[in-house]
Amino acid sequence: MEFNNNKAIYLQIAEYICEQILLGKWKTEEKIPSVREMAVTLEVNPNTVMRTYELLQTKNILNNKRGIGFFLSDNTIDQVKQYRKTSFMENELPNLFRNLYLLEIDFDELKSQYQTFVTQNFND
């Protein structure tokens, strides 16, 4: 995984985990890699992964079953969408709106580009 210098690593790992869930690679109530396994896979300090897992626990995305490991919650997809939507609306959307305004891009043009993106990347 390539890390971006503009955002804390534990938040980038949280985004990675959320993406795995939304893409269906990790299933609801499924056990996820241990802190150590994830740290080795991503080549980061285990404390960083633990911080990520604690964040995702507070967002009700993960549950810790003592002695067994971390599992996805039973309503994990809804929780992930809510967490990611809030993060997007607060952190990324203002910059997008600023660029749309400065570059004089209207919503029709944006919609066309969005539809092309979806067709090329997500329609099988």
UniProtKB/TrEMBL annotation:
A GO molecular-function annotation: DNA binding
Claim: Transcription regulation is one of the keywords in the record: yes
InterPro entries, per the entry: Tscrpt_reg_HTH_GntR (IPR000524), WH-like_DNA-bd_sf (IPR036388), WH_DNA-bd_sf (IPR036390)
Keywords in alphabetical order: DNA-binding, Transcription, Transcription regulation
Residue stretches making up the HTH gntR-type domain: 7-75
SUPFAM superfamilies: Winged helix' DNA-binding domain
Pfam family, one: GntR
Name of this protein: Transcriptional regulator, GntR family
Organism from which the protein derives: Pedobacter soli
